[in-house]
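Hey, I'm writing a tutorial for new members on how sequence and structure tokens pair up, and I'd like a real worked example in the thread rather than a made-up one. If someone can provide the structure for the chain below, I'll link this post from the tutorial.
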Amino acid sequence: MVVTIELPVGASAGETEIVTDQATRILRAAPDVEDVHQDPPRPGFASLTITLKPLSERKRTALAFERAYAPALQAIPGARVSFRAPTDEPGR
């Protein structure tokens, strides 16, 4: 699963890093998450790759995870967040 974070035009690299770090902390605290990989952010844009635990070890499908955590990520000031979830998961 990939989370894309976009900030307003003109956002600095430092602002992008702060927002990306906030999102990473939120996701790493989720019990369904095994790992979060943060690609090097560019000013105004970041991408996080989330590895969810195997479906047998978590309570949510990828779609349910997205719906549960999107509001917390979208509450980060200035961040526009989108998810791209795996399409090969049952119950997606």
